[in-house]
């Protein structure tokens, strides 16, 4: 089924523009850092001479101005594959596929044992059970495929349960009032990297929508993985994964829905580092509950939360990305290391863990944010901008940790911040002098 689509735009932080904007007027040294906590603010300020304080105030003001300017352009219109028209079709166009071991049937669908293959664009309604089989989408690259899961259950012991090897894009629609399940096996590989290793593995853009329920178990690696973009429009998703829970290499956008993720690795992840406008996670609504063995949310380029409820109950680092923006919603993060961590995409290449300003930016301008961290509550290898919202931070008690830590500048204006039980009421309490840790 071919459609002319007007693409919906999604906002994402442009890391290159931010890096240039934040560095204007910021005179950091190679090993400068700023740490903010309820106990450290006084000692940071007291350590500065009058001349240093005056110079640092000028630098902080200049950097804050640059931060504000960059924030005005921080979210740019970025095309995603999703359009609301993808969710409308004529019921008469639906092709029914009945799943059954050794006896799957459907007009225009090829069946080889328990492998059911869709080779052309269209709308397909799937019901029934494959106890050890696979649904394959191998449509032309310029055609779209919609899979309506209508009380469908697919388990594959030797590979992905749903494998999209080719199509322009694929939509999985969860039929109203239904419960659907997808599970792969353990210890398998995918020949020729045709798809990711995941229970739902897609080499094309993927959309999940509808009002039903989808239970996904990734036993070998990931639960849901697209090597392109992934948009979740609605539905109830219960996701369990040996490694990453929900991954879109280019982007993950959540518009609505009730999503629960239990992952051995990262729970939500986008990790494209090659394209400047890709590698981001954005949450615009819904309810997302995360238990992660590593990062709760990881956007290599950017993470944005504009609305919805995000709860990270367990993680190493709760939210991580080069540029992190929270402008609305309710966010609660529990982490054994840093709660919210902004770090450049090159961190793994050798700049991570230093005390130099890497140009990353962490911005909270609205919403309600609660962080309970084993190390720093808010940590940026670049700058921090707290301009709105209600923020409550409990950070670790170890040496060098604090409620707010930045290698660059810290801007604090209209945010309501409570750090380790102490309400921060003015920028003076933040100790924004560019200098070493107290």
Per-chain topology:
Layout: E1 9-13, H1 15-23, E2 34-36, H2 41-46, H3 50-72, E3 75-79, E4 94-99, E5 109-112, E6 115-118, E7 122-130, E8 134-138, E9 144-156, E10 162-166, E11 169-174, E12 179-184, E13 198-202, E14 205-210, E15 213-218, E16 222-226, E17 229-232, E18 236-241, E19 246-248, E20 251-254, E21 258-263, E22 268-270, E23 280-283, E24 287-292, E25 297-305, E26 309-314, E27 319-326, E28 330-335, E29 340-342, E30 361-373, E31 378-380, E32 383-394, E33 404-406, E34 410-412, E35 416-419, E36 422-424
Helix pairs in contact: 1-3
Signal peptide: 1-19
Keywords: Signal
Protein name: Carbohydrate-binding domain-containing protein
Q: What would you report as the Rg, rounded to the nearest angstrom?
A: 23 Å
Kindly, what is the distance between the CA atoms of the first and last residues, rounded to a whole number of angstroms? Answer: 63 Å
> Biggest sheet: strands side by side, in what order?
9-11-14-17-20-23-25-27-30-28-26-24-21-18-15-12
Q: Count of helices?
A: 3
Can you give me a brief rundown of this structure?
This protein is mainly β and 438 residues long.
Give a structural overview.
By secondary structure, this protein is mostly beta strands. It is built from 3 helices and 36 strands. It has helices at 15-23, 41-46, 50-72, and strands at 9-13, 34-36, 75-79, 94-99, 109-112, 115-118, 122-130, 134-138, 144-156, 162-166, 169-174, 179-184, 198-202, 205-210, 213-218, 222-226, 229-232, 236-241, 246-248, 251-254, 258-263, 268-270, 280-283, 287-292, 297-305, 309-314, 319-326, 330-335, 340-342, 361-373, 378-380, 383-394, 404-406, 410-412, 416-419, 422-424. The strands form 2 sheets. A 16-stranded parallel beta barrel has the order 9-11-14-17-20-23-25-27-30-28-26-24-21-18-15-12. α1 packs antiparallel against α3 (50-72). It is elongated and about 70 Å long. The N and C termini lie far apart (63 Å).
